[in-house]
Design goal:
By secondary structure, the chain is an alpha/beta fold. It is built from 7 helices and 28 strands.
């Protein structure tokens, strides 16, 4: 009997790769379990953070009846005798007599007893009296028109942007409980990489060192220039030292390259040396198969993560959208990213028993997705013209007219998709 394929006594079979959807769910769950602590911060300091509690109103909005126009707050049918003026920021006396009025500014509190607000441009003044016909629609905002006291306006897990900050201020908040942005670092592996100039003499330019931090910032991370290290020497001691140093201050360390088991692939031995546990070790997706996510726990309970991105540039971005994006959503206490759908404008091949993430350009008005060209795992030209990845599930291919999930490329903080 041939023994060529028989396992040796000390060989441990590698676990099968995780399914792509399973991997996303798994890393989101571990991120949520390790969600960053909630802290109270002033409104001016929370742009890019995440609500740790629902945003509620402290009063009715508006808190009092507020004039929508410049004009006259009147009582009775008129004409009206002027008895005062109300400006924004003041509390007016009630209108107690019939056919009296006070001049009122936009945003000012409507006095008790007023029956209407007459627009200034639709009024006349003569002989000390104001005349005109108020519109049938009230010209003031009623208390609670926008929200009632203690009403929940936004749920916990909402990303904080300038619009959220303004809303919180209008509700009367000075501080909010939020989760800070995760701190991330990047280690670039590979002695063959150049950090300046064109590729030459068997060496290639590092495209991930400059690009990955920008992607991470779009996912809400804090990444300083000093947090980007590399190329790290292709030795195990250098890898262990670099990763240990990065983990001292980062919640997440991304690495590029070294995720397989070649002669200079030291990531797996490094993780073993540091006592890391795998959350995901390879994913059944193309491109990007040799991606991984590992978890480290300190004695004090602090959890940190290492995301191993493949060295091929497009594969690395696939790993970012597949593993890093859901992990960061969990760490920030946000919801699992929901994938929008689009209709394929052209056919997209399948990848057998692997999920295929195919770069596409979106026509949002038409709701269609068109595959782009130049999409090899080592290429970035197609990525530069794409809006996201179409998800072609295992055992299928994408046909024109099929509705498929889309993994969007991340936007700048505060941006919203059109």
């Amino acid at each position: 009997m041939s023994t060529e394929t028989a396992p040796t006594a000390d060989r441990v079979a590698a676990p099968p790769p995780a399914g792509w959807e399973e991997a996303r769910s798994r890393v989101y769950a571990v991120g949520l379990a390790a969600a960053l602590p909630a802290v109270a911060r002033p409104l001016a300091d929370i742009d890019g953070f995440t609500l740790a509690e629902p945003l509620t109103t402290r009063t009715d909005l508006p808190a009092f009846p507020t004039s929508s126009v410049d004009g006259w707050a009147v009582r009775g049918a008129g004409p009206w005798r002027v008895v005062g003026r109300v400006l924004a920021g003041s509390t007016p006396a009630p209108l107690t007599e019939a056919d009296t009025t006070v001049e009122i500014a936009t945003g000012a509190m409507v006095p008790e007893g007023a029956t209407a607000v007459l627009r200034v441009e639709e009024s006349t003044t003569a002989d000390g009296l104001v005349r005109g016909t108020p519109r049938e629609t009230p010209e003031w905002r009623q208390p609670g028109e926008e929200a009632y006291a203690d009403e929940e306006l936004l749920p916990a897990g909402t990303p904080v942007d300038p619009a959220v900050i303004g809303l919180a201020a209008s509700c009367g908040h000075d501080t909010l409980r939020v989760r800070r942005a995760p701190r991330a670092a990047l280690l670039v592996f590979g002695d063959e990489l150049l950090t300046a100039g064109p590729p030459a003499a068997g060496r290639v330019r590092d495209a991930l060192g400059p690009a990955v931090p920008a992607w991470l910032r779009r996912y809400g991370c804090q990444v300083r220039q000093s947090d980007v290290v590399g190329p790290v020497a292709d030795t195990l001691p250098a890898h262990v030292a670099a990763l240990r140093s990065a983990l001292a201050s980062a919640d997440l360390v991304c690495t590029t390259g070294g995720t397989m088991n070649g002669p200079v692939d030291h990531l797996h031995p490094t993780l073993e040396a540091l006592g890391a546990d795998y959350v995901v070790n390879t994913v059944a997706v193309r491109p990007g198969f040799p991606m991984l996510l590992a978890r480290l726990a300190d004695p004090d309970g602090r959890i940190r993560f290492v995301a191993g991105l493949p060295g091929n540039p497009q594969s690395a971005i696939v790993a970012l959208v597949s593993l890093v994006a859901p992990l960061l959503a969990g760490l920030q206490g946000r919801s699992m990213p929901v994938l929008p759908q689009a209709t394929l404008a052209e056919a997209v091949p399948g990848r057998g028993d692997h999920t295929h993430l195919a770069l596409v350009r979106l026509d949002r008005a038409a709701g269609t997705a068109t595959p782009v060209r130049h999409v090899g795992s080592a290429m970035l030209r197609g990525l530069a013209g794409a809006d996201g990845f179409a998800v072609i599930r295992p055992g299928t291919r994408g046909e024109p007219g099929d509705r498929v999930p889309i993994v969007p490329l991340p936007l700048l903080p505060g941006e919203r998709a059109s």
